[in-house]
Amino acid sequence: MSQSLGRGAYPNTRLRRLRAQDFSRRLVRETQLSCDDLILPLFVIEGRNETQKVASMPGVERLSVDLLARKAKLLQQLGIPAVALFPVVDPSAKSDSASAAHDADGLAQRAVRELKDAAPELGVITDVALDPFTSHGQDGLMDHSGYIVNDETVEVLVQQALSHAAAGADIVAPSDMMDGRIGAIRQALEGAGHTNTLIMSYAAKYASAYYGPFRDAVGSAGNLKGGSKASYQMDPANTDEAIHECALDLQEGADMVMVKPGMPYLDIVRRVKDELRVPTFAYQVSGEYAMHCTAFENGWLQREAVILESLLAFKRAGADGILTYFAEEAAQLLQG
Ligand code: PBG
């Protein structure tokens, strides 16, 4: 008691002294948010000069490859380090085997090539998962009982990751949550000579209801058979399991791990960073984006301040970077 009071007792200690002026607040600030922390998810569609609004994600547009390439140049100029690409394919390209996922000339693969051509310094992250390509909207292959089979799915994911790397993807990011996929993908990348292709593992990905607007955006919501992804994504009640997942993925060859969703899961970000001490990313997902936008549109929250505060909170929790639909706007705010 006397120990803590010795240093801390009022009026010797007045914590408001350091808060009184801007210069001293800046001097003692523990975390900073910068453009270097931001990754922008992008939705890509077929066609030319084509844009489509996403109803549940105000301000987010799906873009055809040519418009995507143009946008990439702007993002590179803004100082955003990387984008995460999500293809939105026509229902006719969906099948039970998800074979369009690893088409060397598929939408994602073409988009990667165009992006790297237009903005070579902008990192390109691809989504490794089958949900845009399966007729049932699940992330893996389904057996007769409706169960998502693990090992057969991993074989397709490996082909998909290889096709992304061959197209020039800098980072492949498996978001499917199958067991063993990181090791299988790493081994295949090594075998094909893609030794510097990075793997960002969606390691602690929860079976969350916050993904709803994203499933609208990629057109997998309407057809999501079974509704739930709980047989492969993590139970929101768990935390030790997140450490287990991340540790395994690192052991299998992931270069960085991700926690997803973001704001409701900052306790997981903090644990992963403290216990594993590796590059740790977090995804402020579509539902979090939609919630914010609704409040902004109604004038209930102040847009710019809340965007920056929400992203700073990720940094304070230990995230090295954040996937966020606010990335472009946040970068503009941080620059300006
Ligand atoms: C699926 C995938 C999802 C997201 C990224 N990849 C949705 C899901 O698992 O159903 C969610 C992103 C978001 O909500 O913003 N492979």
Automatic annotation (TrEMBL):
GO terms for molecular function: porphobilinogen synthase activity. It is an enzyme of class 4 (lyase). Signal peptide: none annotated. Its EC number is 4.2.1.24. Homooctamer. This is Delta-aminolevulinic acid dehydratase. PANTHER family: DELTA-AMINOLEVULINIC ACID DEHYDRATASE. It comes from the Bacteria. The keyword Cytoplasm does not apply. The keyword Lyase applies. It catalyses: 2 5-aminolevulinate = porphobilinogen + 2 H2O + H(+). SUPFAM superfamilies: Aldolase. Keywords: Heme biosynthesis, Lyase, Porphyrin biosynthesis. Belongs to the ALAD family. Pathway: Porphyrin-containing compound metabolism; protoporphyrin-IX biosynthesis; coproporphyrinogen-III from 5-aminolevulinate: step 1/4. SMART domains: ALAD.
